[in-house]
Amino acid sequence: MDNKPLLQERPPAYSPAAQAAGYDYGQSNYGAIPAPQPGFQPPPPYPYPGAAAAAGYAVPPPTSQPNYSSTYTIIQQPATTTSVVVVGGCPACRVGVLEDTFTCLGVLCAIVFFPIGILFCLALRQRRCPNCGAAFG
Questions:
Q1: Which of 97, 95, 117, 115 is nearest to 106 (CA)?
Q2: Considering only CA atoms, which of 95, 101, 102 is closest in space to residue 131?
Q3: Which of 132, 136, 135, 127 lies closest to 99 in space, CA to CA?
Q4: Which of 40, 47, 93, 113 has the fewest C-beta atoms lying within 10 Å of its C-beta?
Q5: Which among 95, 87, 106, 102 is positioned nearest to 130, based on CA atoms?
Q6: What's the whole-number mean pLDDT along residues 113-131?
Q7: How many CB atoms lie within 10 A of CB 90?
């Protein structure tokens, strides 16, 4: 392999003296704080309370903290009760799950009046709880 450098030119130097020597990349005072404009006056410094009294300013009297008693009150809120509502649960015993059963009249209507009888069969179904045996309408 060759021992020649990969770059044909030297990269630019990072020092300002080398930039003045031959590399000119723009302003030399980039990032410097500009001089103030003529006629500009900075604001006066903030007067501290000790310095204000020494300069002849009237210092307002310190305000006192309100006096609170040393007792405090704890307010306990009642615990919220959570209730679980089971969809299709028995309203009588609250344990069983209601099952749909078709009545004899509904099945008879579905057979005799076939296309429309199915609607009668669905309207005449009965919901029954297997736990307590209660029937709902």
A1: 117
A2: 95
A3: 127
A4: 40
A5: 95
A6: 90
A7: 20
Residue position matching structure tokens 């009297």? 61
User: In the Cβ-directed half-sphere of 71, how many Cα atoms lie within 13 Å?
Assistant: 1
Over residues 18-44, mean pLDDT: 68
CB 95 within 8 A of CB 87: no
Best CA proximity match to 137, nearest among 112, 113, 103, 88? 103
Distance of CA 95 to the CA centre of its chain: 40
What strands, in cross-sheet order, belong to the sheet with 99-102?
A: 99-102, 125-128, 135-136
User: What pTM was computed for the model?
Assistant: 0.34
Is the pLDDT higher at 23 or at 130? 130
Amino acid at 14: Y
Q: In one letter, which amino acid is 9?
A: E
- What token pair was written down for 112? 């005799």
- Give 65-93 as a DSSP string: PP---S-----PPPPPPP-PPPTTB-TTT
